[in-house]
Amino acid sequence: MSQQHEPVVRTPAGAVRGSREGTGERYRAIPYATTPTGGGRFAETRAHPGWPGVRDGTRPSPSAPQPARNFGRLDMSPYFGPGWIRGEEYLTLDVYTPGTDDRRRPVMVFVHGGGFVTGSTAAALYDGRAFARDGVVLVTINYRLGIPGFLTLAGAPDNRGLLDVLAALRWVRDTIAVFGGDPGNVTVFGQSAGATLVAGLLAAPAAKGLFRRAIMQSGSGTGAFTPQQARRITAAAATALGTEPTAEAFAGIPDSRFLDILPALSGVDLKTETATDPLAGLSPFSLVLPVQPADALTEGPAGDVDLLIGTNTEEGHLYLVPQGKFGTSTDTDVLAVATATVSSPRAALAALRAVHPDAGPGQLRSALLGDALFGRGSARMREAHAELAPGRTFAYSFAHRSTALDGQLGATHTVELPFVFDLADEPWLHGDTGLLGRGAAPEGLAREVHRAWVDFAGHGDPGWSPYTGGTESVQVFGA
């Protein structure tokens, strides 16, 4: 396509050339913040000063430095994307829009997951064509990850990845109208680590006025590290790097070295007298807060925000089935997970076995993991928001079981994403090692889930009654 036929939009920071893609227009790699290099990797997020001429927005931007991640037999490349695309200017966002006109369409801002260490806007699962088709302006964002994004350091603000998300939301407030979006009707939604960041936004005073609705997919309102836990990770990182735990000392260390030491951080014991590891050892990074988001909602915008929140019914399978650990799990493995994730492990196991008397060790281990990582924290957030903002909380459970990996993968973590983005028929999600497994996706399920998200973003009603407590007010998808 020649450049004269490609759309150009003029933003307050400068002009951007995009591309026309079937259902609308796509603008990629738009910087919302200054380039994080050297000591700037540990600084407060600053708005991008702008650019001269017309910026090329037809190709993906660099991504935050990140390690490769391997999920055994399961192909997770549609979720993680291409990995580290090297380049300094990665604090960028992509916009999909039905058109750059003066209409005021609902805006949805997506915050990707990936354990606070991986992920980017370039992941195939975050294609926004279905949202543009259905009259929504979709924004997907990159943010700082790993050590630059979340390690506590003297001389640096905490939660720099969250500060990036806040900066991107300010960009949306100030700019999205030129993309045909309504800055007064913004829904921020995230999955996994991205949903935990959304929880942080709901409790952040700085987020007030930046969005009207929020969606948490398989995140946690209690997924933050305590300052004490964060200091343990910082000490381990400084020891591995042979330097002082300060932003000044870390400023001269290359990103590749930060990635080299990640394995040394994964084994740090984070259990304290007052807290267990909210990520069950799966990531050395999270938000760092003195009070969990679910317990601090009155501090942020949560009381004025509609919330759609839910989890999948077999979240923990992702961390066992692809690695061959599900079928080989033992009672000892189950007790180890319980000991690491709950304060009274034997009592918790007895209660779990009472509910699932026929469950084997793999199922029990998965249930404990799923509850520790996402279930308890989502339930706590759901209850807290429903109490704070009655009639504005909507709950769901995603139960469709993927047939991947000989039918064992099930309704695991991430499996709802193709349905939210209405991509469930894409061939790269199918086959025995594809996220959705062999055969076609259930007829109509993607349309149902996607429509609920679009309707919620449009007018705050996903199609079922607000949460009032109990399972009868939880919408189940794909049972």
Automatic annotation (TrEMBL):
Which EC number(s) does UniProt give? 3.1.1.-
Q: Which Gene3D superfamilies match?
A: alpha/beta hydrolase
What single Pfam family name could you report for this chain, choosing any that match?
COesterase
Residues at the catalytic site: S192, E315, H413
Q: Where is region (Disordered) located?
A: 1-72
Would you identify the family this protein belongs to, as annotated?
Belongs to the type-B carboxylesterase/lipase family. Belongs to the 'GDXG' lipolytic enzyme family.
Please note every region of biased composition (Basic and acidic residues): 18-28
Q: Name one GO molecular function term.
A: cholinesterase activity
Q: Which SUPFAM superfamilies match?
A: alpha/beta-Hydrolases
Is Hydrolase set as a keyword in this record?
yes
The Carboxylesterase type B domain extends over 6-463
Name of the protein in its database record: Carboxylic ester hydrolase
| InterPro entries the record matches | AB_hydrolase_fold (IPR029058), CarbesteraseB (IPR002018), Carboxylesterase_B_AS (IPR019826), Cholinesterase (IPR000997), Lipase_GDXG_HIS_AS (IPR002168), Type-B_Carboxylest/Lipase (IPR050309)
Q: Which UniProt keywords apply?
A: Hydrolase
Q: Which PANTHER family does its entry note?
A: CARBOXYLESTERASE
